Every structure is written in C-alpha cells, then in structure tokens.
Amino acid sequence: MLMRSKLFVPASRPELFAKAMASQTDVVSFDLEDAVEPASKDRARAALAAFLADTPRWQGRGKGIVVRVNAVDTPDFETDIGVVVRAGVDVVNLPMLDGPDAVRHAVAAIARHEAERGLERPISILANIESPRGVRRAVEIAAAHPRVIGLQIGYGDLLAPLGIVQGEPAAVQAVRFAVRLAAGEAGVAAYDGAYVDVANPDGYLADAQAARRLGFAGKSCIHPSQIALANQAFRPTAADIAHAVKVVEATRASLSNGMGAFLVDGKLVDGPFIAHATQTVAAAERLGLLPV
Fold first, then answer.
1. How many CA atoms lie within 13 A of 167 on its CB side?
2. What DSSP assignment string belongs to 248-261?
3. Is 2 exposed, middle or buried (0-12, 13-18, 19+ CB in 10 A)?
C-alpha cells in the first residue's frame, strides 16, 4: 500500500472524517489513542464505527484506512479491536510496542474478530517504535508476524521521557537509522513519525527529505497542510526516474552479454543498484510519473 502521507484524524472528531477522505493523503489514520482523552474513548469508538459501517461509499477512491488503537496492555485494546476489525480497514497501527509478543497477541485478537465476521482479507499491522526497548527489539517486532507491513517511529513517546529535545537532529537521525536497518532486515517498510511544528512547512519538508534519504517510505501528517509536502518528499524526482530508467535499460543489454556490473553515467552499477533502480521505476509507474 502506498503510504507516502498518512494523515492523523482524531476518532473523536467525526466532522473531520469526510474532509480527510477527500484530501490528497495516501492514507487516513483514525486515532483512538493519544488524540482521544480517556473520557471520550467510547464516543470516539462509536463515531468511528458509524464511519466504518459506511465505508463502501469511500471505496474505490484509492485511499487507505489505518486505525491506531490503544496499546495491547491497556483495558481499551480489546474494545478498540472489536470496533475496528471491519471491512474497509486496511491496517491496525499498534502503539508502544516493546517486543514481538504484543504483536502476536494483537494479531490473534484481530484474527478472532475477522473469523467471527467472515472477513476474507486479513488486516495488516503497522508497528510503532517509541521506547528504548522498542528500538532495541525493533527487528523482532518487525519480524513477529507476516501481517507486519512496516515500522513507524513515535518520536514524542521515545525522546521526551529521556529528556532529549524534540527534533534534536543527532537523536532523530540515530533512531531513523536504527529503525530503517531493522525494517530492512525484516523485509518491511519504515515510516517516519510526526513533525509537530505545523507552522513551519519548510522544516517539515526538510525533515521528510532527511527521512527519505535514509530509505523511509513515508511520513505522518498531523495537519492537512503537511500532506502535499509528504507526497512531494517521498516521490522519486525527475532525475531519480531518468537515472533509474537508464539503469534498467542498460541492465537488459548488459545481462544479455553476461555482464553483472557496468557503468551508467560514469557510475558503477551492479546487483543492489539494479534492484533500487527497478523499485524506483515501479514506484514512478504507480504514480504515473514515467515519461511517455
């Protein structure tokens, strides 16, 4: 699922649901966790349930639906899962994960409700990394179950309790690198967390581009103004596409001549660079960016 931009919407704000679904975000992430105060959880679940019952009206618009539930070890988790396991939900976002057992517990709960409701398409898992232990065990979390499609960083919960200034570049890049390597080892995607300074679009774009340079696939948006910035940052540039097309074309010719390594624009190209170029061309084709 394409998830360059993922717009958070509090499930307690149903007046925002239609606007979010009509936006240019790749994915709408309805939030039952931090964005909803404890006294409003039941009301938020009811609003989300009503929306999900009406999802056929939104299907076919190319918009993914994610729901961030409360943590597995909270009393709200089972109630949340009972509401969100419905047709139309693509991904359940699990927060505050410290190890693989919580992922497997969540999958079992989701699978039980899927079976009860006769859902044929299994719901995927987006696993949040937002604690020191979560960072240390990120590979185990990512590989806990085949339903896990990616790791997502939660900067606030991770950095603030440690006294690390939010947005501190050294900390952010270190966490990104660790999470990206863990996701790569498990064969899943890595997604960057929120940028809280909504009034600073240049800062958001620079932050998103820094994540993309480390191989991240997308970034959270906490305001609609950040959607276009995320979509811009996580799409291949014209130069990226042109070079990738050259590599793919040169690969066909070189492989037919028995050559596994060759030069394109004066740069050495071999296995991993060919794979990256192939992925870039595929992404450009999916986004309609290939030259005709």
1. 10
2. HHHHHHHHHTT-S-
3. middle
Lookup: tokens for 149 = 């499609």
Return the domain boundaries, the chain: 5-233, 238-286
Beta carbons within 8 Å of 281's beta carbon, 6+ residues apart: 241, 244, 245, 248, 290
CATH number of 5-233: 3.20.20.60
Whole-number Å distance between alpha carbons of 101 and 98: 9
* Interval 212-260: pLDDT, tens: 999 999 999 999 999 999 999 998 777 777 776 777 777 777 766 666 7
Task: Using alpha carbons only, give the angle 262, 264, 268 rounded to the nearest 5 degrees.
Answer: 50
Question: Which residues, in sequence order, are bridge partners of residue 129?
Answer: 153
Q: What is the pTM of this model?
A: 0.88
Beta bridge partners of 28: 7, 65
Distance spanning both ends of the chain, measured CA to CA: 25
Phi and psi (nearest 5°) for 191? -125, 135
